[in-house]
Amino acid sequence: MTDKPEKTKKNFQPPHPFLVIFAVMLCAVILTHLVPLGRFEMREITYVVDGVQQTRMVVDPSTFRYVMDEKNERVVYPVPFFGMSERGEHGVAGFLFDGLDNGRQAAGVAGLAAYLLVIGGSFGVLLRTGVVHQVILRIVQRLGGSAAFLPPALFVLFSLFGAMFGFSEMAVPLSILVIPLLIAFDFDAITGVLVTFGATQVGISCSWMATGALTGAQTIAGVPVLSGAALRIVLWVVLTALGTAYTAWYAIQVHDDPRRSLSHAGDAFSRGRFESLRARREPFTLGSRLVALVVLLSLGWMLWGMLTMSYTMYEIAALFFVMALAAGCIGAAFHLDGMHLRDIPRAFQSGAADLIGAVLVMGMAQGMVLLMGGISPTSASVLNTLLHWAERAFIQLPSLLATGLVYVFQYGFNLVVPSDVGQAALTIPIMAPLADSLGVSRQLAVLAFQLGGSLSHLIMPTSGCLIGVLSIARVEWGDWLRSQWKALAAVFGFGLVAMTIGFFTGYA
């Protein structure tokens, strides 16, 4: 009698981010056949920052109007499949091209794409010198392979950085350094994603400091800039503590049993580099020291610039490009890891190619938005109408339920508009007056935007920085979800609890 073969349990495999975005894009196309076009008007508001009176234009939700035709009927404008529409838009077939091209005018897609490609290329050159892995090996030797403190310490540090600077893009270059370091200590790349991008989003979501997302949202909502800090600090401490504890637990699990990690196969690249360096036992030469000095000076320069000069992606990309040139020339001059001058452009091209997936994700996401008419409140679009309908629906609900749903709405809206600045400009002018109608503070509406907009970046396939860090880690988006879905669900629930606390305490 032969034994029956055991049935193998098939694990759920999330689809590729491209497929998710494509499915959402098809839904957007269907909406253009069903939802009439609408637009808002703008109004000028006055506010004070650091004692200086300033003005800005914001959406006036009371001015929403449907676009009407000559028969006084609401206009529904189905987007064409191919070619140029009468309104000057490209069709469905050109949504990726539109997203990469016109996206620069709407949500800074081209700028972020350029940033990622420059960062990827620059660190490709740096990694080609072999110095990064040499330094990491020396750190491992000094610490004796015992670094249980490292993941939780890095989580706290990156969470603080996120709270201070509100700069998700910062996680991309730093993850290139942190992820190999953690792999060298027998953790995994997913741990690296947790302590860099994950921790950064935790910090941004509860930031009480002058980050662009917070100050912009509070200004638009008409509440004092940097007000409501007490609750945000408490939330940051609690969420950072929970995230640190979870990261430490996860890191120990994969350290003790590497087979538990879904990134174990992808980590083989970095492990192979370390094993090769150990076998060759290359000395830490003058050239290696010079490259290490260039990197330290560059990181110090970046930190100084962010603290004192409000550096943006432009300055940071320029800084790391100069770092790459200097490190590459030193590496070629000293023949580090067999490097020659011709290897510099090759390494730059290879490093940039590693992040091309993130660039395409952003282009597809922005192209999807453009199919619905873009994010301009004054232009006729399906998106404006959907925002108006959401506002009308929330008003009909009990205040507590509506407050929670506003957070859920902000969380989900990030799938369509992954830009925090764009999301704030579109939603806060509508959600702030909605808060008045619900009998809750506008401060709570800002908190809903802050929590939902930031925490959703941990899961959304349209988040260019998430996909960029995952690409660096050699982790598929689906594996990230499969590995961390319980933690991600808990983070989402934390946002709901925070909104509930804010509701009952009269947060203002």
Beta percentage is 5-15%
Number of domains: 2
Percent helix range: 55-70%
Query: What is the overall pLDDT average?
Result: 88
Largest sheet: 2 strands, antiparallel
Strand order of the largest sheet: 1-2
- DSSP helical segment count: 21
Distance between the termini: 74 Å
Task: Please characterize this protein's 3D structure.
The chain is mainly alpha-helical. It has two domains: 18-63 and 367-504, no CATH class; 109-359, no CATH class. It has helices at 17-34, 95-101, 103-106, 109-128, 131-143, 150-165, 171-184, 189-205, 212-221, 229-256, 268-280, 286-308, 313-333, 343-353, 356-371, 382-395, 399-413, 420-438, 442-455, 464-473, 477-504; strands spanning 38-49, 52-66. Strands 1-2 form a two-stranded antiparallel sheet. A hairpin with a 2-residue loop joins strand 1 (38-49) and strand 2 (52-66). Helix 4 (109-128) packs antiparallel against helix 15, helix 6 runs parallel beside helix 8 and helix 12 runs antiparallel to helix 13 (313-333). The longest helix has 28 residues, at 229-256. It is globular and about 80 Å long.
List keywords for this structure.
2 strands
Question: Brief overview, please?
Answer:
The chain has 21 helices and two strands. The protein is mostly helical and 508 residues long. A two-stranded antiparallel ribbon has the order 1-2.
